[in-house]
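#struct-help
A.M.: can someone run this one for me? Single chain, 761 residues.
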Amino acid sequence: MRSSPFSINAEVVEFSLDVRRYDRAPALSSEERSALSRVIRQLSEGKAASPFVGWPQLHRLLVPLLDLCHQLRVEERETSRSLTPFFVEMHQRGVSFWGWSEAEWIESIGLTRRACQQHHGNPSYLPRMEFLAAAYLFGGFSNFSVFPKNSISFARLANDVFGEEFLTSVMEQVQPLFLAWGYAFSSGYQRSLRQAISLAFLVNRSPRLEDLSADLLKMLQTQAPVAHLRQSYTLLLRALVELGMLEATGGSLPEFVKSPQQYDTVNIAPEWVDWCFRWQRLAVHHSAKERYKYVLVLLKVGRWLAHAHPDITSPTQWTTELALDWVATVTSLLRIGDYCSNSERLHFNEKKGNPLRPATQHQHIVAVRTFFTDLQDDPFHLPRTFDPGRALRAPKPLMRLLEPNPRDIDPLLWARLVHAAHHLCEEDFAGKCYYPLALVRALALLWCYGALRVNEILRLRVGCIRWQREDVIVAETGEQLPKENTCFLTIPFDKGTPAFSKAINAVVGKALNEWEALRPQQPRLLDPKTNEAVDLLFMYRGRQIARSYINKILIPLLCNRAGIPTSDEQGTITSHRARATIATLLLNAPEGMTIWEMMQWLGHHNVNSTQHYVRRNQQRVAVAYTRAERNSLLIEALVETKADSPGSVKVYYVLGDDGLCSNPEWATCIYRLACRKCPFFIPQEQAKQIRSRDGIKRFLEVVELTEEEKRAAQEDIQKIEENLEQISQSPPPDSLHQRPKGKKVRGVPLQVLNMPFHPTT
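D.P.: on it. Structure tokens below:
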């Protein structure tokens, strides 16, 4: 352990009352019983009982109680009133207070002030603290969790037991640490922390910080009835780690690390449950989080079996037919909330009854397929009664719904969000900003430029920005990039991707450096991915920023500043949608990245993952195709050889995946870049029907580009937009344009392809 930067008093603080020197026999002697009876009789007759010191028979019981009154600083004239309830209770129970049970102590203390008053029947005097101190010192009582919140002052009890001066010195010694972390340490914080330390000392029965354990503090944090006490225990735990009194831990276990007893297995066949948990324990080639998600699905399968196939209780009974039934149920019948545990139903309460998303359906199928595939291998050796790879494969319609569909944000809205991030100020916060403005601004700019996952943002470390040491000259253009405009961001290990660095806007680098310079010294935390103690960049007041902060606080704040809604046609604007937006913009820039460069920049293993984040600009694709084919522009045409009633032959030009053009003069049409708005445009669904007709033959026609199109293809995509602007000023064609006699034809005669056409189905 590290040496403590503060001088913590390690001197042993003894209890003022040493119970070992008292006669602690629980049974009452005959003389004690007789004396107690005479005392109680005098009290019942309304007479003032003789001073207890005048009863030598009660000396064994009286001495520790007098020492207790002295410890509690009870005035001498009030001593008799304080002791009377103890003698009444001993007389009624027939046993000395040394032999009272925990339940009897709680009855004497009273769960509430009202309960104590009703039990002792004296509205003018409430001996609650006296009984509580006696229970702690004489009865070994420490079950403080039975009392309702705010009904017991633990600080007052600790002051009486350990001494107010000592507890104050402990507070004064740890206070500088919290001030260094950024806490203002107001009176509210001081009261909450003193209450937490007092309860920890009482439960641990030792007033030494060195004697506190991490397990004890986590237990008290779990049992704390109010939020401010739970936060105080978190801070106290981190303070003891920083002071070197405790070893650093990874914090609380993540949600996906559960024991079998923590799952809801009601109404599920026990044998099915045993197979599920055995697989979860032994299938270590899957990550713990993946196994947790799959087990939730498998338990859902168990509830489905109990409802639809009650005779199936084991994986050994599964057949191809049953596997296909599960796939059909998932893709057609299953709804959100079906076959879920009670806790899951509460979580999905607002969405209950809605259809499952395609990705969720796919996960339900994959989970069961993975389960049975593993069970048929070592070390389970389940009989191969069916092939899970075939019976539990996702249907083709479902797979088509899972094709890449990036949820990028409209560029105009995104530009306003970026502008808002650049100009955040204190006035943008409805109330007082919990985090320093420099932290929030750095976080906002990183979100707008970094294209990072939330987990990657939260795990960035101090010193993650690295600046270029010298100017860079671009070999292709000779352009010089100043070193102050070039910086790199180091991304920690995540999702199986090793740590890597990527170029990022200098604005982000300057903002992160600014926050790093203002950031108070914080305790080192264990990175859950690497299990090493690190200095996390986005920490304040000894805690990492909340995982939900970006989605629930920062993004709505930026949307409000930008004057835009928090959702669009593709759903709520979330942190992950920024990743798709930035990737799409960088890929479609005039001199943007290639898909392979984007794959490396996003930290992906393969380009398939990258395709889920980037949406190709159709104009950019058109220009790229035109540049590639500028020497031989072959356009496919479909000719229907069967003439219609007027005797004319229909010609359709293929416009890629978009559809067909039914204008036979398309080669000379001036609206070629605005086909979708043209009345001659035939969408894809209708185009499929035309392709399947009898008598359709395929041709290729070489089409020359206009000067405007050539310039657009050779110079810049911006020319396409200018050309579209010019075209938009002319009305779309409503009839065929007849070519004047003698005018030069822009196309060349059609050539029939020497291959038969087979309509696709």
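A.M.: thanks! The radius of gyration is 39 Å.
D.P.: also worth noting: The CA atoms of residues 240 and 246 lie 6 Å apart.
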